[in-house]
Write a structure and sequence with these properties.
This protein is mainly beta and 178 residues long. The protein is built from two helices and ten strands, in the order ααββββββββββ.
């Protein structure tokens, strides 16, 4: 039995280590900007909100986690008001050599994005969906992060229903808490 295990493990070792080099040491550098506590405002289809965010590296630095809360008071666009909570995780897929963003919302939606492109200065990050859980087929989305200065960035979420073009759903402008 042990010989079979050793033989199978030896045969699989090249596959198991494929792509195990991880991101280059500086691959996370553009994302390190986000680490810390943020506050801001959000405007879009659900109305205006106050936003609180926290970004931190977790699990031995393999994931960048963002936890956030947006509070929409009762308003014309949202008469009952709303509290949105969510977690975002960015990881590095060593096999594809791509950054992946997984977004979990308190409403039960799970979106998986892949980094489509980042500008040369590392100030704009564009993620496009690969899958959207708990939505009908054909929905797709895009998240664009733009670093404005040392202490401010925007996060734009665009959504498209099946057969339509992406439209801005909400844009958040965040400032670093001092």
């Amino acid at each position: 039995m042990l010989r079979k295990f050793v033989a199978v493990f030896a045969a699989l070792l090249p596959i198991l280590t494929l792509g195990q080099e991880g991101p280059k040491p500086d691959a996370w550098k553009p994302f390190r900007y986000f680490v810390g506590a943020w506050q801001g405002t959000s405007e879009g289809r659900p109305g205006a909100a106050k936003v609180e965010l926290k970004y931190e590296f977790i699990l031995n630095g393999n994931f960048l986690m963002a936890s956030g809360k947006s509070v929409y008071p009762p308003q014309e666009k949202n008469p009952k008001g709303q509290v949105y909570v969510g977690w975002d995780f960015i990881s590095y897929d060593r096999i594809r050599q791509k950054f992946v963003l997984r977004q979990f919302s308190g409403e039960g939606f799970v979106n998986q994005y892949v980094l489509d492109h980042m500008d040369a200065e590392g100030k704009t990050f564009v993620f496009v969906t690969e899958s959207m859980e708990n939505l009908p087929p054909g929905f797709h989305a895009r998240k664009t992060y733009r670093i404005l200065n040392a202490d401010e960035f925007t996060d734009t979420f665009e959504l498209a229903t099946p057969g339509s073009d992406l439209e801005k759903y909400v844009e958040t402008r965040s400032q670093r808490r001092k």
